[in-house]
Amino acid sequence: MILDSSLHEFANTNRMKNKGPLCVALFVTRHAKKFGLPLNPEKLVAKSRTQVKGLGKNAVQAVLKDYGIFRVLAEEGSRTSRGSVGNMRKYVQFLNDLNSQCSVDLDFVEGWWVERVREFFASKPLVLRFDESKSLRSVIRDLLEQAEKRQSQYPGSTYVGTILQHLVGAKLNLLIEYSIEHHGASVADESSGREGDFVFEDVAIHVTTSPTEALMRKCKRNLDNSLRPIIITTRKGEGLAYGLAEQGGISERLDVFEAEQFVAGNLYELGKFAQAGRRITAKQLVNEYNNIVKECETDPSLRIKVGK
C-alpha cells in the first residue's frame, strides 16, 4: 500500500521511532482526525514556542486507550521535548503533502502509528538487575515486580505467570542434563495431554501465580499416576497452595516452593556459591529463558536482559 510505504519512509528518514516522536505523531494524527487536513502548524505551537500546544501524557494515553493500550508511553507525553515542535512541523508538512495528492485515510494512519508504539514497547525487555549488594531473592523479586507492573498496564494479560513458567523452565534446562519439553504459557495441560508444566522422571511440576482447587485435583491425579507433584508459586500463592492441599488431604504428599527461593537457590548452587559463578549462572539462566521465549511465545517484550 502506498500510504503504508510512505509512512515507513517518513518514520525512518525522520527517526520517528522513539517515544517522543511517537507521542507527537499520535497527537497530531488525532488532531487531524478531529479538524481535518490540511493543518496549520502554527496553531499547534504553544505561546512559549518551545512546546506543542495540547500535547501531554493525557492526550497521548487517550489515543492509546482506544486501542486497548494502557501502558504509559511517556510520562510528560514529550510535551517539553526539545525536538517535539520540529517533529510536529515535519509531520504536519508530511500529512499536508499527502493530502494534496490524494485523500488520506487518517484511521489507517493512526492505527499505523499505534503499531509502532506496540513495537516500541516490545523492544523494551525486562531487566534482571544483578546487584551484588542485594540478595538473589530480591533480584528475582524485582524482576517479577517489573512483570506485575507491565501486566497491570495490559488488562487480561498473564505476564507474571508466563515469565515465572519460563524462568523455571530455564532453570531446569541448566539443572537437567537431558532435554526438557517446553510449551507456550497459554497451552493448557489438558489440551496437550500433559501431567504438568514440566514432567520428568517421576516428578510433575506445576508453575502458577494463583493455586486453585482445580490444580489440587490435578495433583491428586499425579499421585494416582505414581507422580510426585511439585507446585512453584509466588509468595502470596504459597500459603494458598498449602491451605488448598490441606483441604484436599494431600498436604503431606506434595511439595510447594516459593518461586523466588526456588530460582535464587539454584543460582547459588549452580554458581558454586561464588560471586563470579553467580553472575555467570544468572546470564546463563537469562539466555536459556530468552531461547525458550523465542521458541514458545510470540511476544518479544517477554525477553529479559541482564543489567547492573
Description:
With 308 residues, the protein is of the alpha/beta class. It folds into two domains: 2-122, no CATH class; 126-307, Trna Endonuclease, Chain: A, domain 1, CATH 3.40.1350. The protein has twelve helices and six strands. The strands form two sheets. It has a four-stranded mixed beta sheet. A two-stranded parallel ribbon has the order 1-6. Helix 10 links the parallel strand 4 (228-233) and strand 5. Helix 2 (19-35) packs across helix 4 (84-101) and helix 6 (136-153) packs across helix 11. The radius of gyration is 25 Å and the shape is elongated. The mean pLDDT is 89.
Descriptive labels:
2 domains, Trna Endonuclease, Chain: A, domain 1, four-stranded mixed beta sheet, alpha/beta, two-stranded parallel sheet, 308 residues
Strand tally is: 6
Into which percentage range does the β-strand content fall? 5-15%
Largest sheet: 4 strands, mixed
Low-confidence stretches: none
Mean pLDDT: 89
Residue share in helix = 55-70%
**Quaternary assembly:** single chain
Number of helices: 12
What is the radius of gyration computed over CA atoms, rounded to a whole number of angstroms? 25 Å
Order of adjacent strands in the largest pleated sheet: 2-3-4-5
- What structural class results from the helix and strand content? alpha/beta
Give the CATH level 1 class of the largest domain.
Answer: Alpha Beta
**How many domains comprise the coordinates?**
2
The helix-strand sequence is HHHHHEHHHEEHEHEHHE
How far do the termini sit from each other?
44 Å
CATH architecture of the largest domain: 3-Layer(aba) Sandwich
**Could you say which overall geometry the principal axes of the C-alpha atoms support?**
elongated
What is the CATH topology of the largest domain?
Trna Endonuclease, Chain: A, domain 1
